[in-house]
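Entry:
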Amino acid sequence: MVPPLDPELAAASPFSPARLCSLFVDALHVSGASISVFGRDGQQSTICATDAIASRGEALQFELGEGPHWDALATGSPVLSADISTGLDQRWPIFAAAAHQIGMGAVFAFPMKLGAASVGAVDLYCVNARWLDPHQISLASSMANRAAASAAQHAMKSAEAPGSAEHEMAPALRREVHQATGMVQAQLDLSATDAFARLRAHSFTTNQPLDRVAHEVVSRQLDFSTLND
C-alpha cells in the first residue's frame, strides 16, 4: 500500500506534480527538473517536468537506455555530472552528447526510495556547468526520498485512469511503448528485452523519438517483420 501524500512536499491540494518538480528547482537553484516512477514490470511514468529541456532529457534516457537516472536506480545513490561537455561523460557517451546538444550543462539524478527499494528518480539539470555542494546533495537526496510516496501514488492513480491529465511538459505514460514491444516480440519471435532493444535501435537509427516509433507500430504503420535493419 502506498503511504499518503507527504504534506511537506505536496503543498497544493489536490496534489500537483508540477509543484513537486518546481520545489526541487526552487530549493536547489537548478535550471529544471523531471520526476519519473518505475513500476515492477519495468513500465516508466514521467509525472512532471518543469520545461522542454528537462522533458527531452528524461525522454532521451528512456530512449537510449543510458543516463544518470538509470545509474541512480541501479546504485540507489546520487549520480552527478558537473560538466556534461567534458569528455562528453564516458559513463553515457550517447546521452551526454545529446544532452549537451539540447542545452544541458550539468546533470544530476537522485533515486526516490520507499524503504530499501528505489521506485523512481529525480533528474535535475543546469544550463551551465556547476557542482552541487555537499549540503545541496544531502538536501536533494532527502527531498527525493520524501517525494517518493507522493510520486508513486500519483503514478498509480494515472495508470488506473487512462484519461487523466498530466503535466503539459511530461511525456505521456508510455503504455504504447510497452504495447509496441509486445507487438515487435510477436512479429520477430523475440524476448521482450530484445524486442524493446529493437525499438530503441530503430528510434536511434531513424532519429525519431521512441514514443513516435511505438505509435507507428501500434497503429500498424510500421511492421518490424518487413524491415531489413
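The beta strands are 32-38, 44-49, 79-81, 106-114, 117-126.
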